Amino acid sequence: MIESLGVPHTEVDLILVGGEPVDFSYIVSDGDRISVYPVFEALDVTPLVRLRIRPLREVRFVLDNHLGKLATYLRLLGFDALYRNDYDDEALVQLSVEEKRILLSRDRDLLKRKQITHGYCVQATDPEQQLIEVIRRFDLAKAAKPFNRCLPCNNLLESVSKGEVSDRLPPKVREHYNEFLICQGCNRIYWKGSQYDRMAEFVNKILPS
Description:
The protein has helices at 68-76, 89-98, 108-111, 127-137, 162-165, 171-176, 194-206; strands at residues 14-17, 20-22, 34-37, 60-63, 80-82, 102-105, 119-121, 157-160, 180-183, 189-190. It is of the alpha/beta class and 209 residues long. Among the domains are: 60-143; 157-206, no CATH class.
């Protein structure tokens, strides 16, 4: 019944009937007053019966092929966000289940698949608004670690000495910069140039505090 109203079961963490907690197996009766809630971020509901053993939220994502820009933005803020534009629905479901990732999608039917326990239907169409929506929905602001992850490949960055990468740097970069990060996966090198300044301005707009 809940899904018939357009709400995927993956977004439901608590159901109350007449004020009493029930699970998805409850048989609806005439006159029932039913309240359906998502995961609670600021309210402790541990005394009540939740619909899953572990919390709905794990700060690791897999995104469908319509959310590539959102994936890049999440990586910019330091969040583990798997994305490839050739993932089909079966691959998305498998990654979500096996790696315990929240599936972000704009496809409600995909999120209604019974194998998926952790998912969210993104409402906004603009990538920047999508990012703000996901941050608010999962209360991620305090968990953000900007510039901690490779934007193209999602792997973590680590500090590297200038001497180790000097032969790979453009002459002007080698002359003017001394601090560098390197991707643990693809070996891409990062430094705080003009592109960093633009990204920092974007991060400060999204996370002003």
